[in-house]
């Protein structure tokens, strides 16, 4: 069964083997309390799974369920994914096969 995003004003349900991910924001302050300018912040390639589709549909019509679930921490590729903006929050929509790894 597909999971849904409900913390935002719109409900988003990824289709098939798609995964909706929220990229983890880089640290904005140093340990001593200094603010890091946006251009100097590193773009992290980690994110949290917000919602997951039903899974991949084979040619036989069988559904292969996703290995990911809502709340998983994942390793993302540096480029790719479809950007979706919801309530001024940028989310990324990936195919499950594009996600590099699950972080435990």
TrEMBL record:
Matching InterPro entries: Chaperonin_GroES, Chaperonin_GroES_sf, GroES-like_sf
Keywords noted in UniProt: Chaperone, Stress response
Top-level taxon in the UniProt lineage: Eukaryota
CDD domains: cpn10 (cd00320)
Keyword Chaperone assigned: yes
Entry annotated with the keyword Chaperone: yes
PANTHER family: 10 KDA HEAT SHOCK PROTEIN, 10 KDA HEAT SHOCK PROTEIN, MITOCHONDRIAL
UniProt family annotation: Belongs to the GroES chaperonin family.
Protein name per Swiss-Prot or TrEMBL: 10 kDa heat shock protein
Source organism (scientific name): Linnemannia gamsii
Organismal lineage: Eukaryota, Fungi, Fungi incertae sedis, Mucoromycota, Mortierellomycotina
